[in-house]
Design goal:
With 422 residues, the chain is α/β, with parallel strands linked by helices. It folds into three domains: 2-104 and 203-264, Adenylosuccinate Synthetase, Chain A, domain 1 (3-Layer(aba) Sandwich), CATH 3.40.440.10; 106-199, Adenylosuccinate Synthetase, subunit A, domain 2, CATH 1.10.300; 268-421, Adenylosuccinate Synthetase, subunit A, domain 3 (Adenylosuccinate Synthetase, Chain A, domain 3), CATH 3.90.170. Helix content is 33%, strand content 18%. It contains 13 helices and 19 strands. The protein has helices at 16-24, 77-89, 110-119, 135-143, 150-155, 159-177, 185-199, 206-215, 249-255, 286-296, 314-324, 359-363, 390-403, and strands at residues 3-8, 29-32, 41-44, 50-53, 66-69, 74-75, 99-102, 106-107, 203-204, 220-223, 263-269, 272-274, 308-310, 312-313, 328-332, 343-349, 367-372, 406-411, 419-421. The strands form five sheets. A ten-stranded mixed sheet has the order 9-7-5-2-10-1-11-15-18-19, with helices on both faces. Strands 14-16-17 form a three-stranded mixed sheet. It has a two-stranded antiparallel ribbon with strand order 3-4. Helix 3 (110-119) packs across helix 4, helix 3 (110-119) runs parallel beside helix 6 (159-177) and helix 6 packs across helix 7 (185-199). The mean pLDDT is 95. Residues 11-13, 38-40, 128-131, 133, 135-136, 225-226, 230, 239, 241-242, 275-276 line the site of inosinic acid.
Length: 422
């Protein structure tokens, strides 16, 4: 293994947590390059314990792996500490030798969360259905060149005045536009300094660290969060997250040179889900969607919201796999399709190659479906492609045909061992 990147090929929640955990076993470094506490990577350990990680890379479950939060990540300092404490209570200590945080990563501060949540209140026009974790407003301040970075905790120089400046702008919006209470920068500073003292030993120029590691031939796994269709530039704008969720973001977000990736793996669920607002061409409404939601346990790992469910959209997959340079795919949750009756696969959009650039256009697409036979057998115990019932094998092969990308691994349950390679 050299430099590998795992991306979600749909709208997030593809089951990346388990796949990353699988690949992390052989990695020296596991790196997040974008997003923040909006992610929810679920990992089921062999002893039955279930963990949901929001910020820390999934390499924390493997001794000997150095976990990195790169410059493109936005992180809530208090949330990082909470996540570390939760792991420590479970007997997994994350010390500075196992977690490195970029000095350049921006901090998600209380104004960001308050603004995100205020904009998302019921009935507000332009709702995106965000996770409410402050991600969009934090990236706004980053792009607006008024954000605070982890480096500001290290030097503390000008911390109070930077917070004051941010508070002046953000409180104005909170109070005047949204009728919310302002947030006192002095209180934030006191709490931030305290959190900063604890985080200081974890901070470093992680770009330098990774470039050295790659130069020495170490195995580096880049852990995608969200999914390509939620990418700020290439997703279903404006119903996207505010970061570069596609593999293109690795270079700037982690600070490695172009060409530094040897392999990109796209993770796709055997059907499609989406949380929040926004177009979803193969969405199933009513009872059929409900059946998939129930069978797949499709409720958000970060917010608990029910996920919208639909058939596998191979036209969208072709776009996201091509965009991210994935030459292979991991297909997850194939077991969920057992007992769902005849299945449909969205094969193409009539008259459209690629993916539309606006949400309005997506809603006018005319999807073309193929109906394929389903199967009733449970798949939890299957450990080889040959062990799958015939229609499940045909389903996998048809998805490969329609996407033009090889499925190198199939997951048939939440457990670490419920997976097989092809
Ligand atoms: P935000 O990232 O919280 O700003 O949310 C923007 C959009 O991305 C919303 O539709 C969220 O539901 C979606 N989103 C963000 N993170 C995830 C994720 O990890 N899985 C699935 N959807 C996500």
């Amino acid at each position: 293994m050299a430099a590998e990147c795992i991306v979600g090929a749909q709208w997030g929640d593809e089951g990346k947590g388990k796949v990353i955990d699988y690949f992390a076993r052989k990695a020296d470094y596991v790196v997040r390059w974008a997003g923040g506490g909006n992610a929810g990577h679920t990992i089921l350990l062999p002893d039955g314990r279930k963990f949901v990680l929001h910020l820390l890379p999934a390499g924390v479950f493997h001794q000997g792996v150095v976990n990195v939060l790169g410059a493109g990540v936005v992180l809530d300092p208090w949330q990082v500490l909470e996540e570390m404490e939760a792991l420590e209570r479970a007997g997994l200590r994350v010390d500075p030798s196992r977690l490195r945080i970029s000095l350049r990563a921006h901090m998600v501060l209380p104004w960001h969360k308050a603004l995100d949540q205020a904009r998302e209140k019921d009935g507000r026009p332009g709702r995106i259905g965000t996770t409410g974790k402050g991600i969009g407003p934090c990236y706004e301040d980053k792009a607006g060149r008024r954000g605070l970075r982890m480096a500001d905790l290290a030097s503390r120089e000008g911390l109070a005045s930077s917070l004051e400046r941010l508070a002046r702008e953000r409180n104005l919006l909170l109070e005047s536009l949204y009728g919310e209470a302002p947030i006192d920068p002095a209180r934030v500073e006191a709490s931030l300094v305290e959190a900063g003292e604890r985080l200081l030993p974890f901070l470093e120029d992680t770009g330098l660290l990774l470039r050295k590691a790659l130069g020495e031939g170490k195995s580096v796994l880049f852990e995608g969060a969200q999914g390509v269709l939620l990418d700020l530039d290439h997703g279903t704008y404006p119903y996207v997250t505010s970061s570069s969720a596609s593999s293109g973001g690795v270079f700037s977000g982690a600070g490695i040179p172009f060409g530094g990736l040897d392999r990109v793996i796209g993770v796709a669920k055997a059907y499609t889900t989406r949380v929040g607002e926004g177009p979803f061409p193969s969405e199933l409404h009513g009872e059929a969607g409900e059946r998939l939601r129930k069978a797949g346990g499709e409720f958000g790992a970060t917010t608990g919201r029910p996920r919208r469910c639909g058939w596998l959209d191979c036209a969208a997959l072709r776009y996201s796999l091509a965009l991210s340079g994935a030459r292979e795919m991991v297909l997850t949750k194939l077991d969920v399709l057992s007992g769902q009756g005849p299945l449909k696969i969205l094969a193409s959009y009539e008259g459209m190659d690629g993916f539309p650039s606006s949400a309005g256009e997506v809603s006018r697409l005319r999807p073309r479906y193929e109906e394929v036979p389903g199967w009733d057998e449970p798949l939890g115990g299957v450990r080889s492609f040959e062990g799958l019932p015939g229609p499940a094998r045909d389903y996998v092969l048809r998805v490969e045909d329609l996407t033009g990308v090889r499925i190198s691994m199939v997951s048939v349950g939440p457990g670490r061992d419920e997976v097989f390679r092809r």
